[in-house]
Amino acid sequence: MKTKIEPFKIKTVEEIPITTVQEREKYLKDAFYNPFYLKSEQITIDLLTDSGTTAMSSKQWAALMDSDEAYAGSRSYYKFENIVKKITGFKHIIPTHQGRAAERILFQCFDVKGKYIPNNTHFDTTRGNIEYNNGIALDLLNENGKNPAFHYDFKGNIDIDKLEEVIKKYGAENIPLSMITVTNNSGGGQPVSMENIRKTKEVLSKYGIPFYIDCCRFAENAYFIKKREKGYQDKSILEIAQEMFSYADGATMSAKKDGLSNTGGFIATNDDKIAEKARTILIVTEGFPTYGGLARRDLEALAVGFEEVLNENYLEYRIGQIEYLGNKLLEAGVPIIEPTGGHGVYLDAKRFAPHVAPEFFPGQSIANEIYRISGVRTVEIGSVMFGKKDHNGNHIAPEMELVRLAIPRRVYTQNHLDYIAEAVIEAYKNRDNLKKMKIVWEAEFLRHFTVKMEYID
Ligand SMILES: *Cc1c(COP(=O)(O)O)cnc(C)c1O
After folding, report:
1. 3-state secondary structure of 28
2. Which of 143, 245, 274, 341 could pair with 189 in a Cys bridge, judged by C-beta atoms 3.0 to 4.6 Å apart?
């Protein structure tokens, strides 16, 4: 059959608010033209993030009821540990309440102060936790990954030559660990190839540097390897994931992504000393090592989620959804990052609204307009989120101006995607009317969450 269907049927439904343009114009004004201030009851389709917004399956809800809430030695923990070990092969599995807790603990264990930690692209919380511990986060993305319109199968790959250069320049003793993020969230959800992971391992072993994978979307990455990399067509997602992890010494995970659950995470490592340190910090700051800040029922939901995410029918539907939406937009001429990645479609705001210069926040203007037209909430990833100022107060723009349409897992149907595409295409057709914006108030750190904005007439 040609028609691709959602590989599930719906047992519980949640009503979504349907609002009018007039209402949404008022909501936007009340939200200071920052979609982060919008309330759920004002949002028809929420594409702010794919993190923790997954719809759980009937099996996960059933597992939740069957949990063992023991403080220590809970059977729910052992189910969780068992499946994570099966997938990753790592010796120590340490649960955390979400990904950034795993990162915080890992960088405390490695004592990163004054040292360099390379990655393809650090996610903002990863970078934040390194810098908070006075380390230096290095992004070594391959050049192909930086060009939005350029087609390349593995735009998430780390630049191996640059990695080796960096090691020679700073010395292996100043690089306590090196990372790779799969898929590369900050770079458009683009995958990393097995070859790239293998070569990274080769370089790092030569210099004795530990290798950790930020594996939030390991299953989506494995699916791309199966579809695009030679020699993997006949392997299962589990086998591909196992091979990916076999090259690493450990991993950090936000299970709010490919754990198919609403919260959770873990640190995994083969290093006994790191594990011992991590468990000590965990007990002081998160909880006992058999729950790590999670309710045991969450570990149950995760144990089932990690099984379900390996299902190829699910991944085909998941990646297919993103591609479907991306293709609809491309057919209408809307500029996006190509090819589409794993968890969302990224609009290229520079080409979408070339008349709005980066210092006037084109991505924010587009995100507001899409919401005004349709009630679809998206998020700017550009000058609002990453813009800086020089000594004279002039705007320094990041490399790309993007609007992310992150697709929650198993939540929206193809009709919802058609509605989203219609909204974006309408905003694009009327792009000449997109207005410049200015910031009227901002916080000192991570300003995008709470920034207040206005249009410039
Ligand atoms: C979400 C995410 C994190 C952080 O995880 P949280 O659960 O949000 O704390 C780290 N790295 C990547 C690549 C992510 O996508």
Report:
1. helix
2. 341
Q: What is the DSSP string of 45-86?
A: EE-S-SSS-PPPPHHHHHHHHT----SSS-HHHHHHHHHHHH
pLDDT value for 148: 87
DSSP annotation of 267: E
> How is residue 21 written in tokens?
């343009």
Residues in the ligand 1 pocket, defined by CB under 6 Å: 51, 98-100, 123, 125-126, 181, 185, 214, 216, 254, 256-257, 265
**Residue with CA closest to ligand 1 atom 5:** 99
Q: Report how far residue 4's alpha carbon sits from residue 233's, in angstroms, rounded to the nearest whole number.
A: 20
Task: Report pLDDT digits (tens) over 145-200.
Answer: 988 889 999 999 999 999 999 999 999 999 999 999 999 988 889 999 999 999 99
* Residue-range domain boundaries for the chain: 21-50+311-455, 58-308
State both tokens at 89: 């092969």
User: Picking from 1-5, 37-41, 149-153, 274-278, which range would have the lowest pLDDT averaged per residue?
Assistant: 1-5
Structure tokens at 11: 């047992």
Beta bridge partners of residue 136, listed in sequence order: 116
Check: CB of residue 183 under 8 Å from CB of residue 228.
no
Ligand 1 centroid to Cα of residue 97, in Å, is 11
pLDDT band at 399 (very low <50, low <70, confident <90, very high): confident
d(CA 26, CA 395) in angstroms, rounded, equals 29
d(CA 427, CA 403): 13
Q: How far is the CA of 116 from the centre of ligand 1 (A)?
A: 20
Read off the pLDDT of each residue in 415-436 and give the average, rounded to a whole number: 98
2/439: higher pLDDT? 439
Q: Specify whether the CB–CB gap between 436 and 456 falls below 8 A.
A: yes
Tell me the two tokens of residue 457. Answer: 């007439």
Phi, psi of 315 (to 5 degrees): -65, -35
| The CATH fold of domain 21-50+311-455 | Aspartate Aminotransferase, domain 1 (3.90.1150)
Q: Is 251 helix (H, G, I), strand (E, B) or coil?
A: strand
What's the burial of 128, exposed, middle or buried (CB within 10 Å: 0-12/13-18/19+)?
A: middle
> For the chain, what percent of residues have pLDDT higher than 70?
100
Residue 25 CA to residue 314 CA, distance in Å, equals 37
* Ligand 1 geometric centre to CA of 386 (Å): 17
The arrangement of secondary structure in 58-308, i.e. its CATH architecture, is 3-Layer(aba) Sandwich (3.40)
Confidence of residue 386 (pLDDT cuts 50, 70, 90): confident
